[in-house]
Amino acid sequence: MRDGQRVSYTSARPKHSVAPEGSLITNETTPRAPDDVDSVVDGYRDLIQALAGARTPELPDSSVTMAQMKVLMLLSGGEARMSDLAHQLAISASSLSSLVERLVEADLARRREDERDRRNVLVSLTEAGFELLDTFQELGIHHLRELLTQLDDEGLQTVNQAIDLLVAAARRLSAEEPR
Questions:
Q1: What percent of the chain has a predicted confidence (pLDDT) above 90?
Q2: What's CA 112's distance to the chain center, in Å?
Q3: Do 15 and 30 contact (CB within 8 A), yes or no?
Q4: What is the per-residue pLDDT for 143?
């Protein structure tokens, strides 16, 4: 969400985007994105497809949905108010409530009243929630290490520089987004 408005995102389908209301848009090229950006995005898609085909997913808990995983990832930063989570995810409080309820039932999150303001409900990860996130992160790191071992020293240096640039850009972007 940017400036209070939902933005479209790139679909998994090649040359398609999904509008905020959910409709599929066919894009030959992204109108505002320069060719260099499109080239990087295409390369990223190629990388993801190559990695997906090169290994069998080792998902530790397939019962966790993508929406629930987003909540868990937000909670990895610490306890949060339900209203803040709903705002960050751009979903209604009732939708978030059902997501959190399923996480509580699975013992991945806990919910409690805010002692200072009983109107607020606070949500945090349980030990099992932290363990699930750690497992996913370790799987990603393991596969990244495997990929990086295929590069020579010059390639590793180039990737390292690119990561530094992307981290700096992500920090600038997150500083621009209203909280």
A1: 44
A2: 25
A3: no
A4: 82
